[in-house]
Amino acid sequence: MTATYTFDVFSSLDGFGANTGSYGGYWGKQGPELLDRRLALYSEEQRIVYGATTYRALAGMMAESTPHSEEWDPWVTRMRSLPATVVSSTLEEPLEWVNATVVRGDAVDVVARLKEESDVPLRSHGCLSLNRSLMAAGLVDRVHVTLFPVITGRTGVERIFQDAADFDLELLEQRTLDGHIQELIYRPTLHA
User: Fold this and answer.
1) CB–CB of 82/41 below 8 Å?
2) Is 90 exceeded by the pLDDT of residue 70?
3) Do residues 121 and 6 make contact, with C-beta atoms less than 8 angstroms apart?
4) What is the residue-wise DSSP string for 166-191?
5) What is the pTM of this model?
6) Per-residue pLDDT tens for 124-139?
7) Exposure of 77 by Cβ count < 10 A (0-12 exposed, 13-18 middle, 19+ buried)?
8) 3-state class (DSSP) for residue 45
9) Domains, the chain, ordered by start
10) What is the C-alpha separation between 174 and 179, in angstroms, rounded?
């Protein structure tokens, strides 16, 4: 049996994964339900998959912050402590995070092998280009979108599905957090 792979991503309503504006993390919209939900998701045993760009960004953000800043939310701390595979041809071990290992090779081949060998589910937070490639290869079982109630037309960066293939999405779960954040979990199928 193969492990389930989830592409977990935060998004503005207009499809951006980040912004250069004054919103701050979570676009300034987080509340206790969101943070509790994230901690519950990452409390489960799983392996995290990162691309080099996202790993560098997260490691840098954590290194520059203090334990009292929002980068150290309990769910982020938990995510950082989980076993992780970083797909990279440029990073060298040892990595800053003790449970992270570098695996070289094509991401599609690496994740296909992980899905076959892993005893726990796989999850990747962010890692946009990596996950677009994995979706196109049919390796993503779940797309977990946390949709924040903002439009970042002027300040948005990193369109989540920029240049992605076409997919049909089957809605598996939905919930509203803190009265305004939507969590949507889909099963993607490449549109023929």
Assistant:
1) no
2) no
3) yes
4) -EEEEEEEEEEETTTEEEEEEEEEE-
5) 0.95
6) 999 999 999 999 999 9
7) middle
8) coil
9) 5-190 (3.40.430.10)
10) 13
